[in-house]
UniProtKB/TrEMBL annotation:
<keyword id="KW-0819">tRNA processing</keyword>
<dbReference type="GO" id="GO:0052381">
    <property type="term" value="F:tRNA dimethylallyltransferase activity"/>
</dbReference>
<feature type="domain" description="C2H2-type">
    <location>
        <begin position="400"/>
        <end position="421"/>
    </location>
</feature>
<comment type="similarity">
    <text>Belongs to the IPP transferase family.</text>
</comment>
<dbReference type="GO" id="GO:0006400">
    <property type="term" value="P:tRNA modification"/>
</dbReference>
<dbReference type="GO" id="GO:0005739">
    <property type="term" value="C:mitochondrion"/>
</dbReference>
<dbReference type="GO" id="GO:0005524">
    <property type="term" value="F:ATP binding"/>
</dbReference>
<feature type="region of interest" description="Disordered">
    <location>
        <begin position="116"/>
        <end position="135"/>
    </location>
</feature>
<dbReference type="InterPro" id="IPR013087">
    <property type="entry name" value="Znf_C2H2_type"/>
</dbReference>
<keyword id="KW-0963">Cytoplasm</keyword>
<dbReference type="Pfam" id="PF12874">
    <property type="entry name" value="zf-met"/>
</dbReference>
<dbReference type="InterPro" id="IPR030666">
    <property type="entry name" value="IPP_transferase_euk"/>
</dbReference>
<dbReference type="InterPro" id="IPR039657">
    <property type="entry name" value="Dimethylallyltransferase"/>
</dbReference>
<keyword id="KW-0067">ATP-binding</keyword>
<dbReference type="InterPro" id="IPR018022">
    <property type="entry name" value="IPT"/>
</dbReference>
<keyword id="KW-0547">Nucleotide-binding</keyword>
<keyword id="KW-0808">Transferase</keyword>
């Protein structure tokens, strides 16, 4: 029945451990979906699972890229992972995809993502650099909303009608898609909608593989934060400094060879290295005192803590927004199981046992339970998401502009409410009065103009 198990969650929640548990129980092999852990020789900075904790399970795409190699683009990751999934299945085993680079995971889980499969995204820019470069390339994107709207109306009127004239962000995004792909966003969305309808009519949903289970290892916010802080302490004990030092030395060697390394991508943006960079820089300056160096070291470590917490938050945000949205569009939110790892002493009962039971239920072809039923945390977090999804207006909402009140409303419902509102009726009345007045004045003006003429014509 070809199951796919995916494990997502913030850094420091124990994803890798759960992946090993499940792979051990269900004859699995693990595919790493963390962009940083693909780098070789940096087990501590990138937080790779130690060999003695892997329980002999094969780990793919882990430690496979050299320091001087470019980070993998998402298209390459997707292609390699899909190939590995097939290979693992051909061996009669179960693929377990685990990693914190969630846009990698998502590209594997779903059939179509924003710009469509196999087109732009293959070797396109990484999402993080996209925003910076587009307005440099197309300066009009930095214009005020009126200018953006005018341009969008010209190139993609369907999209232009959909957005509120003041919603610069959405107008800009539609223009950006047009510039980047040379195609109208409205066409792309219509195509996606068609694919979606087709998929739904074939009863497939949008998930690439029918029997997908996604485990989200999560924890209460305070617990997660203190765990992340502790993790930085552990990394230091395990030898973070010497790893970062080695990276720093490597860079200096390259520089002395006249080679410029792009520090804005790949492992050079990994948390732990870039925060420590000022410290290693200072070590090279003979005028720095011991005391200054020590202060700088502590400041850098504090920034690692902050960056780690921030990264954890952004990972959770991705799950709550992007992953949830895709699952929701596919009607598959019931495949996302939140596991509460707040009580780390109860890992077996809170994490391993329920996840194993869920996989077994799916393998037996039986319906899996409501994800909210797993724990209090699951009930709170997933319940809130379900609520939000219900309240959210359709994304295809059309905008209506009232010329009388000079107001724009999103959606037919708001428009109807506006038409019956006191403000609009009053506006209508005064507009009618004004029209009446104008007509009267025009008439008398016309008469006074016509009068001599008609006299003249009589003559
Ligand atoms: Zn009005």
């Amino acid at each position: 029945m070809d199951p796919l198990i995916a494990v997502v969650g913030a850094t420091g929640t124990g994803k890798s451990k759960l992946a090993v548990d499940l792979a051990s129980r269900f004859n699995g092999e693990i595919i790493n979906g963390d962009a940083m852990q693909m780098y070789r020789g940096l087990p501590i900075i990138t937080n790779q699972i130690p060999v003695d904790e892997r329980n002999g399970i094969p780990h793919h795409l882990l430690s496979c890229v050299d320091l001087d190699e470019e980070a993998w683009r998402i298209g390459k990751f997707k292609k390699e992972t899909l190939r590995l999934i097939e290979e693992i299945r051909a061996r009669g085993k179960t693929p377990v995809l685990v990693g914190g680079t969630h846009y990698y995971t998502q590209a594997v889980l779903f059939k179509d993502q924003l710009v469509g499969e196999g087109s732009e995204d293959e070797d396109g820019p990484e999402p993080s650099t996209e925003l910076v470069s587009t307005s440099e390339k197309w300066p009009i994107l930095d214009s005020p909303p009126e200018v953006l709207m005018e341009k969008l109306t010209e190139v993609d009127p369907v999209m232009a009608q959909r957005w509120h004239p003041k919603d610069a962000r959405k107008i800009r995004r539609s223009l950006e898609i047009y510039f980047q792909t040379g195609r109208r966003a409205s066409e792309i969305y219509a195509e996606q909608q068609m694919m979606k309808n087709e998929a739904v009519s074939k009863n497939e949903g949008l998930l690439r593989f029918d029997n997908t289970l996604i485990f989200w290892v999560h924890a209460e916010k305070e617990i997660l934060n203190s765990r992340l802080n502790a993790r930085v302490g552990d990394m230091l004990k395990q030898g973070l400094m010497s790893e970062a030092q080695a990276m720093s030395d490597y860079l200096r060697d390259k520089r002395s060879e006249g080679i410029d390394v792009d520090l804005t991508r790949g492992v050079w943006v990994s948390i732990g290295f870039k925060e420590l960079a000022p410290y290693f820089e200072a070590l090279q300056q003979p005028e720095k005192s011991e005391k200054e160096l020590e202060e700088l070291r502590l400041t850098c470590i504090e920034s690692i803590r902050n960056a780690t917490r921030q990264y954890g938050r952004s990972q959770i945000k991705w799950i709550r927004n992007k992953l949830w949205k895709s699952l929701s569009d596919a009607g598959m939110t019931h495949r996302l199981y939140l596991l509460d790892s707040s009580d780390v002493g109860n890992w077996k009962t809170c994490i391993t046992e329920p996840s194993e039971k869920l996989v077994q239920t799916m393998l037996d072809g039986e319906p899996t339970p409501d994800p909210k039923s797993l724990s209090e945390l699951a009930k709170t977090v997933l319940g809130a998401k379900e609520e939000q999804t219900r309240e959210k207006p359709e994304s295809t909402t059309k905008c209506f502009t009232c010329e009388i009140c000079r107001k724009t409303m999103a959606g037919e419902e708001q428009w109807k409410i506006h038409l019956t509102s006191y403000g609009h009726k009053r506006g209508l009345k005064s507009a009618a009065k004004k029209a009446e007045r104008d007509a009267y004045f025009r008439k008398t003006e016309l008469e006074s103009q016509e009068a001599p003429e008609s006299e003249a014509s009589k003559v």
